[in-house]
Amino acid sequence: MLAPVEWLMELVGEAGSGATPRGEDVAADLVRVGLEEEDLHGGDITGPLVVGRVLDVTDEPQKNGKTIHFCHVDVGDHGQRAAAGGDPSVTQEIVCGAHNFAAGDLVVCILPGGVLPGDFAISARKTYGHMSNGMICSSLELGLGEDHDGIIVLSEWFADRPEVLAGLQPGDDAIPLLGLDAETVEVNVTPDRGYCFSMRGIAREYALSRGLTGFRDPAGPDAVHVAAANDAGYEVRIADDAPIHGTPGCDRYVARVVRGLDPTAPTPGWMADRLVRSGMRPISLTVDVTNYLMLLTGQPLHAFDLDTLSGAIEVRRARAAERLRTLDDVERTLDPEDLLITDGGEVPLAIAGVMGGATSEVTASTSNVLVEAAHFDPITVARSSRRHKLSTEASRRFERGVDPALPPIVAQLAVDLLVELGGGTIDEGVSDVDGTTARTPIAFHTRDAWRLVEPGSTTGAPVPEGLDHGAVIAHLRSIGCEVAEDGEADSHGFTPVAVTPPSWRPDLEDGPDLVEEVARLRGYDRIASILPTAPGGRGQTREQRSRRLVGAALAGLGLTEVWSYPFVGEQVFDRFGYEGDDRRRAAVRLANPLSDEAPIMRTSLLDSLLPVLRANVGRGAGDVALYETGLVFHPRPGTPEAPVPPVGVRPSAEVLDAIDAAVPDQPRHVAAVLTGHSVPAGPWGSARAVEAADAVSLALELGRVLGIELRPEAAAHAPWHPGRCAAIRPVDRNGSVGEIVGYAGELHPNVCTAVEVPVRTCALELDLDAVLAAVGPEPVQGTPLSTYPVARTDVALVVDASVPAGEVGRALRDGAGDALESLTLFDVYEGDQLPAGRKSLAYRLTFRATDRTLKTAQVSAMRDDAVAAAKRATGAELRGSPA
Predict the structure, then answer these.
(1) Looking at residue 107, what is its pLDDT?
(2) Which of 182, 199, 191 is nearest to 2 (CA)?
């Protein structure tokens, strides 16, 4: 909400009382009572910006078909005249391309040295064969409007203010003349402070912040005399037969009629100026009056061309497939939840609270007008606004809640202004269909304000100055509440009261809301900062600690964490090479996706992680290692569609169970992608490219930090290369091997090409929930560190080439016993020294006992046991031994 400072000062009774406060001071005062400052506007033009009289205009056609004007302008004792020592014969030479002025007109000129909005500095420059010493300004260039092609002619600009024109002389400072020294404060209106979507609301808050007593409500009972409703008004019917959450879409509708308006009557300059400074473009008198009053009071208005209406105004819900062309010239298909304003219940005229229709639009020839001022349900308006992607000034106000007492008042202001500025007469009939209800008083104890606003207060503590019973009552009344005593006072003088909030504060619903009002008016800075004591026994769950441990481990290994959007396109399944019956092809489809190209939820983290890798590689990154932890989504087969319960009431247990049953499975996965070099080149040697073993080793390391063995085994699973893919299985403390929890290895070359990532890219994806379930609920017990020396021995075993090295290693570990500390494969050989179809695997076995120093004979015996176990399990033979 843009709030011009001068307008604000007028409303709070400070206009003419002295120097206008700076915008930053006004913003600080508003922040003090809880409003958020968004920005400051205005005051960014520096002179010389002066009034000029055009002395002559020479037309000069150009080769490009344009005609420019070489002008001599009298700018008083400025510019070229000042440089010539004040010689009155010297005038300002300016080149201009606009065509809406002539010799003798008073215009606005910015001279060299001036600066326009956007930090656009003006200097003398040669253009079209002349030296142009400045600019004759348009409203757009000065930030006063949208007209770029037509310059400001002051006789037209101040047509309704002849007293201003009478005193103008060439050389006068145009900055204060046009109000360009004025500032505007932009306030960010939060959803609970909808009344501040008006100058009325912001002025009230500013007066409270400054302790001013001059604020007079422009929509108060003393500001306007409202004609009483009668039976002679234009017929209005409210026929809402499908209210949302039990609340009618419209509970008040006021209609007033003005006939005989002058369609050519101009919008007065003061009103146009306020509209422009508030971010709105002047259009016509009728439209500008409705917009001006909306800015002033917060009550949106709509004007219909009365001559286009044939029947009563009826407010109803839309019918299936009904259509309406709105004022933005878009043909819209309406939804049965949309609330409509209709002509006789048949022809749609407007989407209530959002935008009017083209059929009843006020035009340049409209002389008879029906003014609508209504109160619409915030939820109904919000849903229609979002459904049609149509956010308007009216909808933003209705969504936050508009004062239901305003419609008859603002309708009266509107018809009075139209008659005053455009002539015509007001119909005696006044339509006011009123279904609003009075606010229910809130039971409140003034002691609560002391107890909650003063942390640490006790029954024996003294009441702080400025927060006694009388101060609390005064704070509540200052925001418009009616307060009535409702009980006996306690020892500190605090009493129960019944508080009736004002009609413009729908956000005040209970005692805590009232306490917050007292706190902000007293000053948030006066509330002591006392941190609550954390209760014992709280903290992160085991799953949360484990997830953080996984992330820390991957980050420590040099990977970078990313978060990708979980929305993907169906083409990802073909690119990844999933079979037709692959479970990952069954995906949750979004009813209203952010992008039509990504309408489904991912079933694998790689679905969305690989495009992130592609983006990084595309921006020049060569060696990339990324990881992500997040949810994937698998619809439950055979589950019915989730029911949609009505809003406003708690669903039954059966409905909640049905909703829960329809929610897809959402396991948490961890995935990583690697490309480029795992070890860069340097003084230590040549670079080493990423390979499948790097992805597998990441999986094994995650198992280690979580306290569980993850065992790889050869597998073929899309999107991995069938010969370079490992399935990952957990092994519990009893040695039992569990179900597959993920895969790791090198991606298939076809997949790399399809998703546009480098060939030989490697990836890992684990079902983190399944891994944590395999770890079990018991804490992992650490193994005591032995202080005895290690004993190492090597063995080389010959096995069939088809035997995985992992199986041989597991057999060695099983046979070696508890004293085996580590087992490392350090060589694989296939060559002429071995028979065809055989390979040699060399392992280093490291033994260490926890209670003694191992002797050579003991180590040899454990080694022999390990070799014997490997022979039984895999047929391994010691290399060099007789066959």
Answers:
(1) 94
(2) 199
* Beta strands at 677-679 and 688-689: parallel, antiparallel or unpaired: antiparallel
333 forms bridges with which residues in the sheet? 323
Same domain, 166 and 26: no
d(CA 576, CA 604): 11
Half-sphere exposure of 803 (CA within 13 A, CB side): 24
Ranges of beta strands (E only) in 219-263 are 236-239, 250-259
Query: Same domain for 561 and 680?
Result: yes
Alpha helix positions (H), 454-595: 469-478, 511-522, 542-556, 571-575
pLDDT score recorded for residue 41: 80
Q: Which residues contact 389 (CB under 8 A, 6 or more apart)?
A: none
Q: Do the beta carbons of residue 504 and residue 201 sit within 8 Å?
A: yes
Residue type, 43: G
- The sheet that has 482-485: what strands, in order across it? 442-445, 496-500, 482-485
Q: CA end-to-end span of the chain, whole Å?
A: 91
Could you write out the DSSP letters of every residue in 727-743? EEEEE-TT--B----EE
Distances 297 to 290, 300, 399 between C-alpha atoms, Å: 11, 8, 16
Residues 725 and 849 in one domain: no
How far is it, in rounded angstroms, from Cα 748 to Cα 725?
Answer: 9
Nearest Cα neighbor of 847 from 782, 798, 805, 786 is 786
Same domain? 548 vs 675: yes
Enumerate residues 6+ apart whose C-beta is below 8 A from 535: none
Q: Of the candidates 530, 529, 595, which has an alpha carbon nearest to the alpha carbon of residue 566? A: 595
**Which domain, by its residues, includes 124?**
49-177
d(CA 347, CA 342): 5
Q: Looking at the structure, tell me whether residues 345 and 401 fall in a common domain.
A: yes
Structure confidence by residue, pLDDT tens digits, 719-739: 999 989 999 999 887 778 899
Given a cut of 70, the residues of the chain with pLDDT beneath it are 16, 145-149, 455-461, 780, 881-883
Helices (H), 371-489: 378-387, 393-400, 406-422, 447-453, 469-478
Question: Phi and psi for 671 in degrees, rounded to 5?
Answer: -140, 155
Find out whether 382 and 390 touch, Cβ atoms under 8 Å. Answer: no
Q: Name the 3-class secondary structure at 268.
A: coil
Check: CB of residue 593 under 8 Å from CB of residue 526.
Answer: no
- Judged by DSSP in three states, 257 sits in strand
Instruction: Give the C-alpha separation, 291 to 414, whole Å.
Output: 10
Buried b (16+ CB within 10 A) or exposed e, 38-63: eebbbeebeebbbbbbbeebeeeeee
Q: Looking at the structure, tell me whether residues 730 and 802 fall in a common domain.
A: no
CB 678 within 8 A of CB 688: yes
* Residue 717 backbone dihedrals phi, psi, to 5 degrees: -155, 125
